[in-house]
Every structure is written in structure tokens, then in C-alpha cells.
Amino acid sequence: MILRKVSPFLPAAVRRYSYKPVRRVSLPPASKLNTPGADENKAANGGRSPVSLKDELQSRIRATGPIPVATYMKQVLTNPASGYYMTPDEVLGSKGDFVTSPEIGQIFGEMIAVWFLTEWSKFGRPSPYQLVELGPGKGTMMKDILRVCDGLNVTPGLSIHLVEMSEHLSKVQASTLCISSSEFSDKPFYRSGYTASGTKVFWYRQLEDVPETFSIILAHEFFDALPIHKFQQHESSWKEVLIDIDPADEGKFRFINSNAETPMLRMFLNNYQHLVRDRSSIEISFDSELIIRQIGKRFNSVGGFALIVDYGHLGEKGDTFRAFKAHKLHDPLMDPGAADLTADVDFSILKQFCERTGQIFTVGPTSQRAFLEMAGAQERLKVLVEAAEGEDQKRLLENGFHMLTDPEQMGERFKFFGLFPKELESFLKSSR
Question: What are the b/e assignments for 300-337, b being 16+ CB within 10 Å?
Fold first, then answer.
């Protein structure tokens, strides 16, 4: 049962952003790599490494042969010297390459707060408890969530744990959420701070480092950024799609099918081929399965639940790997490190990953439009519009809500997917 009302004390806020149909933000969890002198070199080169990532990748291909799409994607997004997310360039918001739901309007984060507080109550409101967000972006969604928590006086016993590998983005998040923060090199977390109401906030580079306490895990536009392996059926056999140097133009990359069986193709054929059904191509993120297993293990040991929000499909698509730059589609093999890379989340596979753990049962996925309506977003919009100052502000609120819920924009494209402990399946199903 989703709460139908949101407290009217919450202040209105208008965000002036445009939205293109498919956007993403979120960072894959990975260990921080330290490159001697990287900061100095990047500072002297406008924030980016003087060593071209394209040259690095091409040197690797010349030395060891074509590379999997997952290897390319991971390097392009998280290379410590030249990765897309590892520089201080503006990549989020109206001046960046994409805009996400929390940046469009406060209703999005507020409805997620309503949902998690409802589910938390079903568990008996355990305390202490922690909110864990994977890939927090600018921290906007968490800020909206915390405003609801503060207003409803549920922050006693609550702590915030952000999994973020980009130190630059962690600073942006700290400025959004905290009145003070500090850096650390000798603790599992590398940054910590506290909000104006005294809630503690911690930053980690990987989920494994987050403390073992009852955890509510949020992942908004996170799984679409995790590296994918692409497999293609060719002449009645499966091949892995690789990235090679284009022999017709050695300054460019190209996609090719593997000639021989690669290690990941063997893994796919032995363990995942049954997921394909009638498709001739498929994208699989093995990192996603690893994280799902970590979540299941956490549920089993300390309890909790999770919400995954992302754009994706239910198994009907096979080729969604693409890039965005300045709010437009961009060739993913051109200028590596200068554009965002993404692939739609295959929720049919993600659901099977959950089932394979034996520790997770799932709810959904359901559309963003349906989720927001069930949570009471329409009622909340009325409250905000009534409190708005002037017609311009009212129109912006209504336009933002339309972007979030319109089937032709974000309403159907984005999916909400709930994860809960398997042992509580019967109880939680009966409480809905």
C-alpha cells in the first residue's frame, strides 16, 4: 500500500531544465585507481588528461587485439585520467550532456521518499537504518528525500551512504547535502559530512564498504551505466561483439564479431544463453549480477530492501548501446571520454539475476507514470501549484510533471523495480 498523501509543509522548488527522451547519470562502482601526477597533468590541460584516451585504447588493441564493449565502456566512463565522469567538466543538467528526473522537479524525490517510508514501516521501522544510494548524481534526489524525512521526523537513527567513485562529483554532492564535510584516506569511506539537521553522510567507492546495517538501497539511472557485453548470433552461432581499430581509417574504431570463442562468450553460452529466447542479439552486464548478489547477501545478513529506477525494456531489445553529448545522440566510438555511454537496462535479465540469488523476490517493473500516480504525485502537484507564486511558476511545475509522467517522454520509458528479502515474500505480498 503506497501512502496517498504528502505533507503540505514541503516547500515548492522550480527547476528550469529541458529534457530529451533518453538520459542517464550514475556511476559504476569500482575501486579508485591512482595515477601519479594525473591531477597536475589534468589541471594543466583544462581538466582532462594530456594523454588521449583514444590513443591508450588503440595501443591496447594493437598489443592484445580487439576488446569487449564492456572494457571500452569502463575505460571511457571511469578511466582515472581521462574518463567521462572523472573530470570536473559539467556533465549533468542543462549545461551538460543529459538531464535526469530529480533535476526536473522535486516531486520525483518526494515520491520515492513516500515509497521507502511506507515500505520501511512494514518492516517495523527498524533503527538504526541507512539510505544507500548508488550513483547519486548531483545529490538532488537525496536532498528532496531528506527534506521529507526531516519534515516527518524520521531522521533519528538514519544515516546516508553514497556510493560514488568520482571525487569531483562527491564534492558536488557534499555541497548540495552538507553544511560541512571532510576527506579521509584511512577509513572505508573517503568523505563524510552532516546535513543541517545533523544527519551523517558518508561516501564510498564500492558497495562492499558500506556498513552492515538495515539498508534501503536506491539506484536511479545507475545500472544503465554499468559495462555491458554484447553478443550477436551470426550464421547459427553466437559471437561476442568486440571493438577494433578500423583498417580503413586507423584514427577510428569499429565493431566486429569475434572469430573465436572469448572467455565471456563461453560464460554466456554455459550460463546465460537460456535468457535469450528468440533474440538474435543481447546485452548483458555481468557487473549488474555481481551487485544484485551483493544486495541479496546484504538482505540476508542485516535486512533491507531496494528500488531500482532506470530506463529499459523487458527483453524485446537487443542493441541499445549508444552515447550522448550536449543532449544529442553521439557516435559511441568517436572521441572516447568526451561523451556519455549508456545501454538500456534489460529488466527481464535483471529479474532473473535476482531470482538466481535465492535471496530476493521482486516487484515490478512498473512504469514511472504508474509509480508516481500510486505514490500520490498528482495530489502533491496540486499542493505545489496552489503555493506557487505567479503563472510562470505554475506552468513550470505542470510542465515538469508532464515530462515525468507523459508516456511519450519519461512516463513509460523509465521503470521502477523493487527488491525485497525472499524470506518475507508471503508477508510483503499480503500487505500490498
Answer: beebbbbbbbbbbbebeebebbbbbbebeebebbeebb
Do residues 135 and 205 touch, judged by C-beta distance below 8 A?
no
For 110-162, the pLDDT digits (tens) are: 999 999 999 999 999 999 999 999 999 999 999 999 999 999 999 999 999 99
Q: Contact, 405 vs 369, CB < 8 A?
A: yes
Average pLDDT of every residue of the chain: 85
**Torsion, Cα of 52, 56, 61, 67 (10° steps):** -90
Identify whether 28 is preceded by a cis peptide bond (ω within 30 of 0).
no
Torsion sign, CA atoms 285, 35, 90, 72: negative
pLDDT tens digits for range 12-26: 443 332 223 333 333
- Helix ranges restricted to H, 226-285: 263-271
Q: Could you tell me which residues are beta bridge partners of residue 325?
A: 328
Spatial distance between the Cα atoms of 431 and 318, rounded to a whole number of angstroms: 36
